[in-house]
Amino acid sequence: MNGLRAEVVAGRGSFELRAELEVPPGEVLAVLGPNGAGKTTLLRTLAGLLALREGQIEVAGVIWDDPAKKAFVPTTDRRVGLVFQDYRLFPHLSVLDNVAFAARSRGARRRAARSEATETLGRLGLDALAARRPPQLSGGQAQRVALARALASSPALMLLDEPLAALDAQTRLEIRAELRRRLTAFGGPSIVVTHDPLEALVLADRILVLEEGRIAQTGTPAEVARRPVTEYVARLMGLNLYSGRLVDPERGRIELESGGELFASGAASLASGSRVLAAVAPTAISLYLGEQPEGSPRNVWAGTVTGVELLTDRVRVAVKGTPDALVDVTAAAVADLRLTPGLPVRLSAKASEVTAYPAP
Q1: What is the pTM of this model?
Q2: For 303-316, what is the HEC assignment?
Q3: Residue range 185-196: average pLDDT?
């Protein structure tokens, strides 16, 4: 395999990361996870900043780390392109010399390194910035230069640590699509560590989720977004997630572990008695006061409002019930219904809006 193959057992102190991953050439893998999940540990082991306890890292057919064989390639000798959250450009060097630094660090002469850097800047459309120094760059320009420097090192593997986190919202929107194009054109394996689910969905061909030092879920962006397998992933993707047992496949009836039940119209193909997960979008749940409206769907239950939070163009209402739920409503609905903590409400959701799938 010319991409990345890694069996990682690493950590510090009592924390241990155990993860196996393969990233073929040309694929962009996004790594998501809460703080302390092991994202940074994974990045550090791949970059050579932290040695493996066990396992092996192989990139483009070359072993970079294998404790059993006493093989370890130091960071300076690994063909890895690094893009950090703060970009780490040298403030005293011009953009041209920042990009040329990659070749200079490999032993190239200054003229040859600058010629190579000029070519890289031209390929990325950054020629006009060559004479500037980092303090004269905007956030978006600095991010592009950091990417150019990483690509100029002729890497076999690209590692990006929160590459858009330092940008404002508008610049992040502009850079995101461009970064995706550049990583696709790179041709080698790329790993993007991020806490932003939208960033992962847009940039990646595949998503890997770490929780407590273990892989919780991996799949395409569509698979992870539609079928989360843990509460963390569900909240990240903006879904309510329930676990239970399918007791009536024909009717799609699921008995929930937390109490209560849900009906899912697409559950007929699942095995009776099997453990399943059911995902429901907050926008798919209706909230109202009083009696059940005429013609309501099969999923109807009572609850009590526990919190109300403004989310840009909508309001998210937390409801304690059987089951609990997050519900998205308009600001006008909050005012009309006078939604405040402690208010009894009714919830409903169509069975067609409940996605049921086998639990792992």
Answers
A1: 0.88
A2: EEEEEEEEECCEEE
A3: 93
